[in-house]
Amino acid sequence: MPDSQEPAAPSAPKAIIAPEPTEQSRFYRPPKLSRQQLKLKITEQQELLATLLQRYTDQHPEVVTAVRKLNSLQSQLQRHHPEAAQQAITEADHKAAHPSPLQPWRPQILDSEQHYLPDFSYAGYRWGEQQPRLTGATIVDVTEFGVVASDEQDDSVAMLAALEHAHEVSGPVIVQLPQGRVDLSRVLAIQRSQILLRGAGSSAETGTELFFSKPLLSVAAEDQQQWKIRQLVANNKNATQKGHSPVSWKGGFIWTKPRLKPFSTALAVETLAGKQGQHELEVNDSSLFFVGQTLVVAWCSSGCQRASFDKHLMAGTRTKLGRAYDRRANLVNQFVTVEAIDGNRIRVKEPLLHHVKPEWHVKLRTAELLEQVGFEQFRVSFTKRPYAGHHKEPGFNALFLNQLKHSWVDDVTTVDADNGFVVEQSANLSLNDIAVIGRGGHYTMSIATSNYVLTTNFRFLAPALHSPAVGWNAELNVYSGGMVKNAKFNLHRGLNQQNLFDDIEAHVASTRDLFTEAGGRDSGPIAAGYTTYWNVRAQGNVNLPINVAAPGIRLIGLSFSQPLKTKSPFIGYAEGLNHDGIEPASLYRYLLQQRLPKQATGN
Questions:
Q1: Which of 130, 427, 537, 584 has its CA 20 to 30 A from that of 325?
Q2: For the segment 181-223, what is each residue's pLDDT rounded down to a tens digit?
Q3: 418 Cβ neighbours under 8 A, 6+ residues apart
């Protein structure tokens, strides 16, 4: 990553168009052209117009000129040669009925050494290299513990008994849910690795429905105490002082967290060197490390030379971080996995998010995470009530995925939730075929303090305030291949950075909804360096040019129902605005395909 000002994005190649003749007087008339001349010029203008429309329409005012000139020539043909005009209309109708396929185009940034593009290919379960699975598992059928579906009776006691038994089973375990509706009012806690909660499908007619009649703020006293529900945001003085609901953006009725273990423990070692995008860390003592160990790399602890790190973090610009970071340590955290140890050199699986320099005081901690936790084939629904309002949510929260690694969600739908899917302190999760439907809420999905979360084949249909979102310390996460109906793409400050919105259909009220701001302004810009939008296709109103306070943002193949343009100066990189046919259609899949063959051959 360059530590200098981001160069301006290269402008699109310009077509050469003859200037429109200036009208010399109100009596001026264009010269009369022959039938053949008119047809030839019309063909030329049609070809030129098609070319321009496939390029950067927002950067080419020549398109308007070409359209006007084409209309003028067609009017002359109609006026002076009506029989030829009818033939031209027939040919145009034929072309409209048999449109030529879009010409694919390859973004220049893929082959550029000048413009940094993060490697998003490590997102997902087992870094995208394997499909999620749990083999050799013992099946625990909840009906054997007294759960009866569709009887309109609360099955919380029986369900908790089945889960408690599952936690005591040795080895992998599948908790099997019945078809039909299961009424519940207690938190379903997952506190062990190698466990799968599986239903009969997410269909409302033939699948499994977990129906919760109460919000988190009204659950049983033992849940309140165990999960410290009333104190969830106690450390957030801003939230507490304003009387925000403690479950506004935390907690869920399906809640994962290791039992009685701290999230991380500091290691008494010095981290000496490492390069951004590379896989080696140099330390002064490697005796505390082992292969397979999960570490947290923390940049800029106390004593860090903030000026140089801040500039690096903000894509070489002088964007200020905000007052929330004046005395804050550990500005950026990344999960990595020890792959090999050679003397005092530690090789990690994931490429380093930033350089490691002595002056940036990079520290290492161990991380305690659950692994191989899965949720499949069910829906989570709530009593249908009007949305209580921002930060007033009583806690109709579905899945709170906390302290997980190499885990997954597949074929899960949430209905009428305040928060659908919330991910925190996790790495390498795969969420596939998920949906958030029903009334509006706070988040359809939020990712914070996490890396390499991959969300694919999603349908976020509920009109939430943030949909989808990346928040505090969210890095290298991917939303790919989905649809958002009431989209409000949210970059929720807190130094979220290098996240990817990829191959997405979005329906928005205006262009603002592609880059919504949230969180206090003292928490820095809406994102740090290199947030990336790739092949995001939006429908809605264009109210303003794109002006995103996210330094180094990458906008590649962003198309809209109306022409888009960026506001000058633009502190990022834009390529292919309004240009359909981008190839590759998914940056994530392209990067993964590029990496895996090299990995297989050892290159």
A1: 427
A2: 999 999 999 999 999 999 999 999 999 999 999 999 999 898 8
A3: 215, 247, 248, 387, 388, 393, 394, 395, 396, 397, 441, 442
Classify 155 as helix, strand or coil.
coil
Q: Are 359 and 304 in contact (CB under 8 A)?
A: yes
Give the pLDDT score at 16: 33
Is residue 184 within 8 A of residue 163, CB to CB? The reply is no
Edge-to-edge strand ranges of the sheet holding 294-299: 264-266, 363-367, 294-299, 332-342, 345-348, 280-283, 271-273
Q: Decide if pLDDT at 1 tops 50.
A: no
CA neighbor of 506 nearest in space, from 540, 549, 555: 540
| Residue 189 to residue 219: CA distance in whole angstroms | 13
Give the integer Cα–Cα distance in Å for 368 and 212. 30
582 beta partners: 105
Q: Which regions of 169-323 does DSSP assign to beta strands (E)?
A: 173-176, 180-184, 188-190, 195-198, 208-212, 254-256, 264-266, 271-273, 280-283, 294-299
CA distance 60 to 48: 12
> Would you give the DSSP letter of residue 192?
S
Using alpha carbons, select from 297, 283, 413 the residue that is nearest to residue 346. 283
The predicted model gives 139-146 an average pLDDT of 98
Judging by beta carbons within 10 Å of its beta carbon (0-12, 13-18, 19+), is residue 167 exposed, middle or buried?
Answer: middle
Exposed (0-12), middle (13-18) or buried (19+): which is 292, by Cβ within 10 Å?
Answer: exposed
Helices (H), 419-495: none
CA distance linking residue 345 with residue 356, whole number of Å: 13
Summary mean pLDDT of the chain:
86
Per-residue pLDDT, averaged over 37-41, amounts to 69
Six token digits for residue 9? 């994005």
**In 3-state terms, what secondary structure has residue 333?**
strand
**Residue 375 CB burial class (10 angstroms; 0-12, 13-18, ≥19):** buried
Q: For residues 356 and 273, is the Cβ–Cβ distance under 8 A?
A: yes
**Looking up tokens 């002088």, which residue turns up?**
318
pLDDT (mean) for 520-527: 87
Cα gap 222→227, rounded to integer Å: 8
Of 46-50, 274-278, 324-328, 399-403, the least confident: 46-50
